[in-house]
Amino acid sequence: MQGALGLSGPISVTFANAVKLERPVFIFTISLFFTAMCLLQVPLHIAYGMMTWQTTTVGLIALIPLILGLSIGEMIGKRMNAIVFD
Q: How far, in Å, CA of 52 to CA of 29, rounded?
């Protein structure tokens, strides 16, 4: 969800799309980018007291609908034309 809520999401996805990466490479690149951003942000959130056990638990629970949504999106994406995907 960080990609949808942060400023880096629309910019990085638009750039990766403009480079005309193939679908699997596009997905891997964006996933790697957001993972790297997360690995940088989590220690800072802990240091500033923004990430507590309560927020971590809520975040882990939020992964359930996120994974379901990604699975549905993956099924739809496999059937989608590359032009429509772009």
A: 29
